[in-house]
Backbone:
């Protein structure tokens, strides 16, 4: 790809006319959905210097297309992911869209966050979490779109795995953000993949709580009462050694 083409398109992103910005943004988004070399050429042209203004643009479609472009950059190599995470202001703006924007913008912003934590390294995950990433992602868990639910659950799985490895209480963070309650509710979801992923996260990171049998009658031993668990109990036929197959998500978010 000719570097001059990328440079010219990036310059058009600064134009005040939305009808000029939109096709330039879409074309750059297509470039970064290609190879890492193409993505790097767009980054070298300075596209990230323009995105902050585009993320707060009055046109919803431009905000959506900007998040789509960022999601494809976040699906690149680690240095390209770093180009996003090293800018706290940009990362906060993305997470704000995950929580607070119109649905089509939220969906694209969710892809950005998910690509960062599923394709990035531990530092990338920590950067997202420190700026409120867990709270933002947990806000999407109760949406109706099964595809986005799987994207979010995959992101939360990656965050919890890194937290467990690095000794950080991300498990507690998810619980504090009502994420655990929402994930537990997904065990009744009609989509089988969503159900399996929810069960996997609960069993892997939160364990299975044993419920106390309230119907046990006290046994009398001399002058005292004692409560015991029967020596023979029915057990559920669950094989916890078999981990549900984790869905392989497409690394790029094409519209």
Residues:
């Amino acid at each position: 790809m000719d570097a001059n083409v990328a440079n010219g398109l990036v310059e058009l992103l600064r134009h005040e006319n939305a009808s000029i910005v939109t096709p330039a943004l879409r074309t750059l988004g297509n470039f970064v959905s290609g190879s890492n070399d193409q993505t790097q050429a767009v980054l070298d042209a300075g596209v990230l210097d323009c995105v902050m203004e585009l993320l707060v643009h009055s046109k919803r479609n431009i905000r959506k297309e900007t998040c789509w472009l960022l999601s494809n950059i976040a699906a690149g190599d680690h240095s390209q992911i770093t180009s996003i995470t090293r800018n706290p202001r940009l990362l906060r703006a993305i997470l704000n869209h995950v929580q607070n924007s119109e649905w089509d913008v939220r969906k694209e912003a969710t892809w950005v966050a998910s690509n960062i934590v599923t394709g990035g390294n531990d530092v990338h995950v920590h950067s997202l979490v420190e700026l409120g990433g867990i709270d933002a992602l947990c806000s999407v868990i109760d949406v109706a779109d099964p595809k986005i639910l799987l994207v979010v659950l995959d992101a939360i799985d990656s965050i919890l795995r890194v937290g467990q490895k690095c000794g950080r209480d991300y498990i507690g963070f998810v619980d504090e953000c009502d994420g655990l309650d929402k994930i537990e509710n997904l065990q009744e979801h009609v989509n089988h993949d969503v159900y399996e992923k929810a069960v996997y996260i609960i069993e892997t990171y939160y364990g299975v709580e044993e419920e106390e049998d309230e119907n046990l009658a006290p046994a009398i031993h001399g002058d005292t009462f004692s409560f015991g668990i029967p020596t023979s109990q029915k057990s559920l036929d669950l094989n916890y050694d078999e981990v549900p197959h984790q869905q392989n998500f497409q690394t790029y978010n094409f519209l």
